[in-house]
Amino acid sequence: MNDKEFQDLEKEASKEKLSVNSVDKNPLNQFKLWYDEILKSDYVEPTAMTLATASKERKPSARMLLLKAYDQKGYVFYTNYNSRKGKELGENPNGCILFYWDRLKRQVRIEGKIEKVAKEESEAYFKTRSYKSRLGAWASNQSSVIESRTVIVKEFLKYLLKFRTDVPLPEYWGGYRLIPEVYEFWQGRENRLHDRIKYTKEKDGWKIERLAP
Ligand SMILES: Cc1cc2nc3c(=O)[nH]c(=O)nc-3n(C[C@H](O)[C@H](O)[C@H](O)COP(=O)(O)O)c2cc1C
Predict the structure, then answer these.
(1) How far apart are CA 58 and CA 77, in angstroms?
(2) DSSP character for 148?
(3) pTM of the model
(4) 59-80 pLDDT per residue, tens
(5) Secondary structure E strands in 105-204
(6) For residues 122 and 169, is the Cβ–Cβ distance under 8 A?
(7) Domains in the chain, number
(8) CATH of the domain at 90
(9) Measured in angstroms, how far is the CA atom of residue 61 from the centroid of ligand 1?
(10) Residue-number span of the structural domain to which 80 is assigned
(11) Closest ligand 1 atom, residue 143 Cα
């Protein structure tokens, strides 16, 4: 999609109306509709999202991550299981991911329980990463305090010598999957009268409601 086409999409999106009747009955399809549009554009980091977690003391934290896969099972990202987010998810599996695509004035919020993906799935994804980013996963004890940058560079070189060709998956590194229970699609509109459509998982299907902006 070139910039002119994206500008047309922007104009279209600003006119777009979301309603309980117009959205797809399945929030995964509604997500795919918006996500495919953003992926087709030259948008910077279209897959970037905020992940919010909370500790067992109920203190929240948030950080940016990249969405690596999604399907009817849920939304997958990869990280270090010993990181702050990993520890918080170990204590409290409830989480929330949030996408914001400013040029299209769109926000998507997805809430649910988060669980580790199967080791084979992490292994398959790890193999797709570059040699150096695989080494990076070994070199960084993510979220730990370090004295200086030298510490991490030394670790990187250590693993570079250790794993000359193949870099195995570290046992503390892998994927998480958020299994959606609630979605909210937000479309910015004029006069701050934005459209907000909420989906709540029910026994068979999804309840769809409009929220006040
Ligand atoms: C755009 C962007 C994408 C990022 N993607 C990832 C990611 O996919 N996985 C990851 O572990 N950290 C990623 N990070 C770094 C995280 O934001 C964060 O610093 C790191 O995961 C440690 O978070 P924690 O201490 O809360 O566990 C990304 C940062 C930015 C700005």
Answers:
(1) 22
(2) -
(3) 0.93
(4) 999 999 999 999 999 999 999 9
(5) 106-116, 173-187, 195-202
(6) yes
(7) 1
(8) 2.30.110.10
(9) 12
(10) 3-211
(11) 25
